[in-house]
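May I ask for a single protein's sequence together with how it folds?
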Amino acid sequence: MSSSVTPASMATPKALPVRTIPGSYGWPLVGSISDRLAYFWFQGPETFYRKRMEKYNSTVFRTNVPPSFPFLGSVNPNVIAVLDCKSFAHMFDMEIVEKKNVLVGDFMPSIKFTGDTRVCAYLDPSEPQHAKVKNFALDILKRSSTIWLTELLNSLDSFWDTVEQSVAKDGKASYTIPLQKCIFNFTVKALTRADPTTPPTQKVGLLQPLEEIFLHSFSYPFALVKGDYKKLYEFIEKEGKEVVERGVNEFGLSREETIHNLLFFLGFNAFGGFSVFLPYLINIIGGDTTGLQEKLRKEVRERGGSPLTFDSVKDMELVQSVVYETLRLNPPVPTQFARARKDFQLSSHDSVYEVKKGELLCGYQKLVMRDPKVFDDPESFVPNRFTSKGRELLSYLYWSNGPQTESPSASNKQCAAKDIVTVTASLFVAHLFRRYDSFAFDSSSGSITAVGKATSA
């Protein structure tokens, strides 16, 4: 699979026409309520953006995104949507945009949820504290590599043992909770050296109208989770003592900052990210009808040697491509925000737009990474899209808040765990097809209904 544009053609052409950003925020209050209902209730995020792209014949336009009035009156929902690869890439340029307190757009959750600490996700690279916390995160990941593989493979063995038992007993296995336990156990052990026994699992199950009224309108009260958060804090303080001390002594963080950032890394970044991404990976491979499982099994058993290592999956081109393609279609964090640090010109493939200082950019990655000017057959899952020459397309794989070809650092907001996420997912696939010849997946129930034990090495 090749790109229909080259990296050079993504540079800003001088001949592009300057165009007024189309779209509207509507009447005060009324416009934001109307857009919120469309976003959450009548259309859903993807259709919401698609319809406006069609209406304005543009991948750049003005609109409102939640949260907004009436109960979050201080939040300004006005954004400039950027929905193609070229315009979206401006959000990585820290000279023209800032990332201070824009994790959820203009809405800033109460920092009571993070111990009255603005954790790394809310910090802009221009803030001195960002470098301390980001370097701490990168150091944790580097040190974790010594046990990450062992803990991952041990947890995966336990996960698949549970699935096998359920399939043998009930004819199917709902894998969500066992997978969450697997993710929690290996990430906590690898990142903090702590040894949890029971991961916290929580699910909100409200009908959509009630969800709209209650969860999309009010700030969630910290008092409802205060007790559980305190237990997690005390757990990390006691069991992750070595890592906490390193944050204090080597990176100049306070003990409280260190623990609250660790909890955010574990909860939002690690547990939350993998809990969204790995089920997508299972669903896509399990639901394929083109012989993908057979191809993956062949590659996994013929390449990489034994046992599995970080280096072994580097030889598994199709496995890696399947991981990348899953991230392209289903990024764990679908929406990214950035605020203009100064006036600048933003370019899409066909136009240039004037953006004013303070305006908020919003990119919905599920559409950005389906840009037809970059990806052939963008709506389809193409397993080998990123193999051979197709690896050039990794420059436009933005799931990590930056291109897959670049590296996270203290000077940017790219996910610190970008590389270990893709390697872990590749190991997940490789482990699966060294243990099994195939597995059957029922998309209607979201269950694994059969696993065929490996008949050959």
